[in-house]
Prior knowledge:
Order of helices and strands: EHEEHEH
Number of domains: 1
Radius of gyration: 15 Å
Number of strands: 4
Helix content: 25-40%
Amino acid sequence: MTDTDPILVLLTAASGEEAARLAEMLVGAQLAACVQIMPAMESVYRWQGAIERQSEVLLIAKTIRSRFDELEREVRALHSYEVPEIVALQITDGSAPYLEWLVDSISKTNQSVE
């Protein structure tokens, strides 16, 4: 494993507005090459001894291993949840041109916005 290995980061948000803010921040800060927002998801989980049910929004961020710590720190700073879901999954294989774009989108500094 290397620092430039691509990963997917799964995040949840309480609303579409919060998800959009997080996605814009992650892409704008080059902490993710792309963030997909999947609306209208229901989560069932245990929190502080009770079973909770809540509507949430799922975000899927594409990034690289070396950016995960900063991504987590920035998401935790902006997130409305006390304990936000921030889970990374290794990408074991993928289209070479897409993965090159992903790494280039995050690795280059001072990129202009098109």
